[in-house]
Write a structure and sequence with these properties.
The chain is mainly alpha-helical and about 150 residues long. Helix content is about 70%, strand content about 0%. It is globular.
Length: about 150
């Protein structure tokens, strides 16, 4: 049984699929932070507190690549929890943005040329699992959105 977020009322497949993509994106985001924290600490030269890590996530160039994930989650939250109903067009746009963030490059990319996201996905099974879950949710949402009237 899925927990409904935001507005109550009758089922809303547009909102429900977006909420599922959002949850999967949040899990991936947390998994990426957990995976990158030891590397950041090694890069920095020592352990960091949770507060220092939060500051680094917001400002340190090391985490620049992760900020689009955070920004997309914030935009989804504004849409899901805002006063205006979620439109099919806006939901599809958010889901397509999520897809673009985690798109797997075509062909073999040398490790030195891979994006930080791709390197994390390749080295950490938990990131790969979260990536797979998100891509499943994205595919389900996009398929459902095709069948809905505009």
């Amino acid at each position: 049984m899925a927990i409904r977020i935001g507005q109550g009322g009758p089922p809303n497949p547009v909102r429900d699929h977006l909420a599922e993509v959002r949850r999967a994106l949040m899990r991936l985001h947390k998994t990426l932070i957990d995976s990158e924290r030891p590397r950041f600490e090694a890069h920095r030269g020592g352990a960091v507190t949770n507060t220092q890590l939060l500051g680094a996530l917001l400002e340190d160039p090391y985490f620049q690549w992760l900020r689009p994930f955070s920004q997309l989650m914030a935009a989804m939250d504004e849409s899901l929890f805002g006063d205006e109903p979620v439109t099919l067009e806006s939901a599809r746009g958010f889901v397509e943005q999520a897809h673009a963030l985690v798109a797997v490059p075509d062909g073999n990319v040398p490790p030195d040329d891979a994006s930080p996201y791709e390197r994390a996905r390749q080295r950490d099974a938990t990131v790969l699992f979260a990536h797979t879950e998100l891509t499943r949710r994205v595919a389900a949402a996009l398929l459902a959105y095709q069948d809905l009237p505009a």
